[in-house]
Amino acid sequence: MIQLESIEKTYLTGDVLTRVLKGISFEINPGEYVAIMGASGTGKSTLMNILGCLDKPTEGHYHLDGVDMVNLDDDGLSDLRNHKIGFVFQQFHLLQRTTSLKNVLLPLIYTDDYPENAEELGENALDMVGLSDRVDFRPNQLSGGQQQRVAIARALITNPTIILADEPTGNLDSRSGAEVMAIFQRLHRDGRTIIMVTHDRDTAEHADRVIVLDDGQVAKDEIISQPRDAEAELAALAPTEEEAL
Amino acid sequence: MRFLRIAGEGVNSLTTNKLRTFFMMAGTIVGIAALTVIMAIGKGTEQKVMKRVENFGPRSMMLIAGGGRALPPPDTSITTLTLADAQAIRDQVPGLEIVTPQAWAFDVNLKYEAKQTQTVVWGVEPDWHEAWKWYVSKGEEITDEDVATMSRTCVIGSSVKRDLFGDKDPIGESIYINKVSLTVKGILEHRGGAGGAGGDFDNRIIVPITTAMRRVMNVDHVGAIRIITEDTSLMKQQTEQIETLIRERHHITPALEDDFRVISPLIIADMARGASRTLSFLLMALAALSLLVGGVVLMNILLISVAERTKEIGLRRAVGATRGDIFSQFLIESLSVTILGTLLGSVLGGAISLAIGKLTPMPAIISWEPFALAIVFALLVGTFFGVQPARRAAKLHPVEALR
Prior knowledge:
The complex is a heterodimer of chains A (245) and B (403).
Chain A: E1 2-13, E2 16-28, E3 33-37, H1 44-51, E4 59-64, E5 67-68, H2 74-84, E6 85-88, H3 100-109, H4 118-128, H5 144-156, E7 162-166, H6 174-189, E8 193-198, H7 201-204, E9 209-214, E10 217-223, H8 230-236, H9 241-244
Parallel strand pairs in A: 3-8, 3-9, 6-7, 7-8
Antiparallel strand pairs in A: 1-2, 1-4, 4-5, 9-10
Helix pairs in contact in A: 3-4, 3-5, 4-5, 5-6, 6-8
Chain B: H1 2-15, H2 18-56, E1 60-65, H3 83-92, E2 96-112, E3 115-124, H4 128-132, E4 136-139, H5 144-149, E5 153-156, H6 158-165, E6 174-177, E7 180-188, E8 204-208, H7 209-217, E9 224-229, H8 235-249, E10 260-263, H9 265-308, H10 310-318, H11 323-359, H12 369-395, H13 398-402
Parallel strand pairs in B: 3-8, 5-7
Antiparallel strand pairs in B: 1-9, 1-10, 2-3, 2-6, 2-9, 4-7, 5-8, 6-7
């Protein structure tokens, strides 16, 4: 359960105060798949950082599973990110020279209740994104789409409350992008809460709900009655060379 | 354990960047190797010094005729040191247990029946035995009566006994120096080994000092005075008192060079340290310099690596690493580098020490102390130069780092 209540964020650059977020309020229920949309400069990244507990708002309250993160110190926020949030970034942010499995297990390093069967969990997570045959591969041996899928497996490893994806298809070709969208829809069907930040309407319409930001405020909050079906889009795309052979 | 997992991340980052890790270690390796060699040479030298001082007598001083800085062979042409000087020292310098003059002659031809040998003759007083802690293994020592009566007796060293008498009992036999006959009254304990001046310690005979001066050498001077102090803490002061006294008695003004010198354990130790001291100073400078330079290089590489790994740090923060976790990881990287560098440096230094011990006259002893010291140094260097980069890494804001 996510509750945003009059979130404001103001930056001081030199002598100039910039109000990036001007009172944002909404709720996201467990199991929702929400896209946050907006052109660049609308405060989308700032909101994403706050939703991810990477940054605190200047004003307002943000309750994540009943905890107001505004009251937490830096260590408390780290702990919250570790347990409640799984990040998927536009640039994947995998550790180079490190295997897929090790990358997936990274968040567990910073948890105080390290699971006994960590490796098994890691392999399961990789299986969930269709990479069970890439466990020992390093990022430079993987395609962009595969790297992003490793990143999704990493986001799943701590079984977080929300998956927070920032332009997850921004660096991918259409096919890999569709694959990632298909994975998100599958995770959504399994009951995961997903928040995806994007500037692209087509991408956003894979979600059930789209919140549109404009000038630091919620301009529109709409339910998508017929989300795009990533599986169908994938099927419609030309087969890969690999599949054609 | 969370800390162990974080430590693992630190070590991991070192093993995946081997070349970078090597450069981070290089200074520590050289510094610790130099430190190990210094300690090995220092320890070897101190042992050599102790042995020399032990041989010389830790409470002993030797007032030797003839100036200059080096050790014997003594200058037998100097005739200014006399029995009266010895008496003056006894009378005027307090705190001395023994003051015993000795006359000496080198390369003396000694005859027994048809056999001959070259030896050293020392004319001594009875307390010579006590002063050198050198007694007879058979027969009798030189006595006061021998000195008073200028008796024609002698006590011979074990090498002389072997050369002239073989298995025969020499006690009561007469040996000749030129035309002077001396009756053997005792045999000195076997001492073995080479003295400071080299040669065989046991190739000597001792005769009463009066007999030596009058009948054998026909001189009025002595070669040396051996002095044993009651208290080693007074030795420095007593050395000065003796020097002042003898200068006065020999009318030596400050402009003139001394016609004697006083050898003390301090001087013996200085001479034994000799070259290894210079080398130790050089190595000490090298060790300090390489640890400092190595530390600065280490810090710079760490700082560069913090800058290079901004995204990695941001990612770790995003997935739950606290500032403390990031700080720990970077500090552990720094400490691991210096500890590994120390291990390699210790091995390298040990190997160099062994080589020095084998290939040069300098003694080197390998022990655990330099290693313990090196680990302490490593932890200091690793901490000192690692904290700043680690702090910088920990301070990075996750939002900035991920940008």
